[in-house]
Amino acid sequence: MKTITVFKGDGIGPEITDAVIAILQAAKAPLNYEFFNVGAAEYERNGALIPKEAFTSFERTHVLLKSPITTPIGKGFRSLNVTLRNKYDLYANIRPAKSNDAVPTPFSHIDLVTFRENTEDLYVGVEYKINADTIHAIKIITRQASERIIRAAFEYAVAHGRKRVTCVHKANILKMSDGLFLSIFKEIAREYPQIESDDKIVDNTCMQLVMHPENFDIMVTPNLYGDIISDLTSGLIGGLGLLPSMNIGKDYAMFEAVHGSAPDIAGKHIANPTALLWSACMLLEYLGETQTAFAIRSAVDAVLAEKKYLTPDLGGTATTEQYRNAVIAHV
Ligand code: NAI
Ligand code: MG
């Protein structure tokens, strides 16, 4: 048995967390759970977005399933995600985008994964005012951070039987910074002769992604391009309710849906828990529980293919609970 930390967030967070935990339990996932309320509602109750005990739990378990939170506006908060990424050095942001027949989109054979560097680049947010009309922003690329994200992408390719890793960059213009990232990519690629490797300039990548997304496999990229193209790939498979992600570092791993707390549908029992559920499957795989993950993924595929218990975001009329029960029946 492995113990994991679970953050129940705001809006639809508690509803989808309950559904996911029920499915994990039905699938007999060998997990114990430490639950914490986090986010805006918790802040109103106790004066902290993330209570101290919640941090302590994550520091003990090293594995976190996090549901979305509402970012309080106008109170000077730093993004909670940026806080967690920096505090626990979650350097790799991994976002798989895969087509599903239940979600009609112009493309049907997309199966790609973005590896976004999560700690540096323009995202360090260091800006200088030179004078009232001139601002400089700092882009940071280091060998250490580049090596570990690029290696993570190749290791993932090997572990998951993938064919190709593509480096996405702008080294034609940013010759020193992106140039360093690209040259490290080429060095590391030589260590993995069994995996094809190539590189593409980021603007060309965007064009090709919307024309021939099925041609992409794994992409690895500095932080800012990764932020943008991974949202683009999300759009290609159509549907926020289906997008999982993981943020991992050397010692810690955090798994969450890509979507937010969806306050417009909170409490209505119509939220789609699949993105968080698939994030939980990635968590199981990370812990080596691949069979349980496979059982849950297969059950979800079956329920989606049946089209009988789809939530409204996928064009159906099922409640979160009906969908949950259908998945449990297949598990
Ligand atoms: P959102 O992702 O919460 O919602 C966008 C639209 O998608 C809404 O119409 C919503 O109903 C729908 N939607 C999202 N997830 C769904 C699901 N699982 N099932 C069915 N429909 C779903 O984005 P929005 O409205 O921009 O942000 C709401 C709040 O969430 C904000 O406070 C934002 O800061 C926060 N947020 C938190 C994130 C996190 O904790 N990781 C990520 C993104 C936003
Ligand atoms: Mg983003």
TrEMBL record:
Coiled coil: none
EC number in record: 1.1.1.41
Domain Isopropylmalate dehydrogenase-like: 3-327
One GO MF term: isocitrate dehydrogenase (NAD+) activity
Organism domain of life: Bacteria
Enzyme class: oxidoreductase
Residues passing through the membrane, by range: none
Signal peptide residue numbers: none
Iron among keywords: no
Keywords tagged on the record: Oxidoreductase
Pfam families named in the record: Iso_dh (PF00180)
GO BP terms: isocitrate metabolic process; tricarboxylic acid cycle
PANTHER family reported for this sequence: DECARBOXYLATING DEHYDROGENASES-ISOCITRATE, ISOPROPYLMALATE, TARTRATE (PTHR11835), ISOCITRATE DEHYDROGENASE [NAD] SUBUNIT ALPHA, MITOCHONDRIAL (PTHR11835:SF34)
Family stated for the protein in its record: Belongs to the isocitrate and isopropylmalate dehydrogenases family.
Annotated protein name in UniProt: Isocitrate dehydrogenase
